[in-house]
Amino acid sequence: IGSSLKAVWSPDDFWTLSFTGERFSKSTPLRALNEDIRLDTLAGEMTYRWSEQRSVSLGLEKKTFTDGNSGIAGSSVLTQRLLETPHFELDGRLEIYGSKNNADQDGPYFFPDQDLSLNGGFHLDHIYYRHYDNTFKHELDLGYGIYKQKGYDAAWIGHIRYENSYAASPWIEMNAGIEFGWNIYDGERELNRTVNFLINWKF
Fold it and tell me: What is the DSSP annotation of 88-153?
């Protein structure tokens, strides 16, 4: 069973700082799970919003596997609102991501020494139903880009994710979704299929 804790601070209308810690992270590779290896993460993010239409963020994440392997990753995301109605939002984004890892030993999971990716994508948000604090909505996320792993040629990657979410109050939200991703591991392209269910409890 995993757990996570997130703290968010907004000193004004433009800046937001967040810090997240996850024990048994949801991003733990399946091959690591099969060997009873857990991934724990610590992450910080800083976001600047010009308005509700545009924002840029910088993030840093520390990854630690229980077998001794560790790494650090950084990212930057620019988001721009492209279309908005009372129940519909469409955002476009550009993202750059890179990581450098220190593998003390060869693990059964994918953990490259160094990698870099440049991605673009679209995120659609549509509200089915809203009544006071009760909200039911679905989301569609499309992503595409190029990925370069140290020692291998660059290659195209992409994903498509669909998710439903229900907020019963400002404090509790449930999410369920499915994702298909085309990723590159040690120069080989693989299709990943993921189903998730998540309960967020704010306090």
Answer: EEEEEEEEEEEEEEE-SS--SS---SEEEEEEEEEEEEEEEEEETTEEEEEEEEEEEEEEEETTS-
**Could you tell me how far CA 203 lies from the centroid of its own chain?**
22
Residue whose structure tokens are 């229980």: 66
The answer to whether the Cα torsion of 102, 151, 94, 124 is positive or negative is negative
Check: CB of residue 109 under 8 Å from CB of residue 185.
Answer: no
Q: Are 40 and 23 in contact (CB under 8 A)?
A: yes
CA distances from 17 to 26, 56, 78, 170 (A): 22, 12, 16, 20
Cα 121 off chain centre by: 13
Signed CA dihedral, 162, 168, 173, 175: sign only: negative
- Give the rounded percent of residues in the chain with a pLDDT score beyond 90: 67
CA neighbor of 63 nearest in space, from 34, 100, 19: 100
Give the list of residues 6+ apart from residue 6 with CB closer than 8 angstroms, or none.
Answer: 18, 19, 20, 21
pLDDT in tens, 111-148: 899 999 999 999 999 998 888 888 999 999 999 999 99
Instruction: With CA atoms as reference, report the closest residue to 167 among 132, 201, 135.
Output: 135
Interval 153-195: pLDDT, tens: 999 999 999 999 999 888 888 999 999 999 999 999 999 898 9
User: Is 0.85 surpassed by the pTM of this model?
Assistant: no
